[in-house]
Here is the input.
Amino acid sequence: MKWSEISIHTTNEAIEPISHILHEAGASGVVIEDPFELSKEREDQFGEIYQLNPDDYPEEGVIVKAYLHVNSFLGETIEAIKESINNLILYNIDIGKNKVTISEVNEEEWATAWKKYYFPVKISERFTIVPTWEDYTPVSSDELIIELDPGMAFGTGTHPTTVMCIQALERTVKSGDKVIDVGTGSGVLSIAAAMLGADHITAYDLDEVAVTTAKANIELNKVSESVDITQNNLLDGVAKNSADVVVANILAEVILRFTDDVASVVKPDGYFIASGIIQQKKEQVRDALVNVGFEIVETILMEDWVAIIAKRK
Here is the structure.
């Protein structure tokens, strides 16, 4: 089977929305080539399981890659991707050089490409993300391991917006809680909530492909009994006061569209964790949450991204 590699030279700010665009277009996952990885210090405990080549990385900005089946509709798909990326400018998202290149690869090269960029990463005090093909031994008795396969997941679970969400879940989820994961994508946040002791997690995504992907990852991590995954638009039709914690790792523009619904669904003294917010949108999201009855408990910053933990009064 032949695959087409689409490569977009862009900015850190645009990684998440472009990844979503590629996922919507049929990509099973994305590869992110960020020159920051070349200088990033990692603990020796993870072992020397990879080697990064500086020639694979841009001197500035980032490169986002995805792989699409070569078929008769590929040209139209690529044009639609380009148009969607250009439209990000309407949301004040800096897309940088926005240079798009296309190349053809065979299936064996495609499989190797995933593994080249994916390795065990400790993302919080307790959680480590591990690729399914790696043997990994926990370094502490309370370490929690989430297994993901980038060939089946939307992202690898190590993007700053996801990392901040998992750190926020660690601080808010209690044993027995009811959790709702809005825009679940790969399902990684639902997996984390289940491992933290939540009694039940409901995961929503409008994208049918994401629902299928999340179900596969939920089963892979053996938390199916705690998690239900449903195709749904944000919090449409969800009962009032039904969640102790709602988490949403999506764009700020989308968060602003359903703050009223979040305020209705979260129980009094419950929490809303919002991530996927660029720095420029931080105050706008904070103000919107305060206006519907939330108290801002904590604002987490990582690189150019923001996550907010808000408590319903």
Remarks:
- Residues 42-53 have pLDDT under 50 and may be disordered.
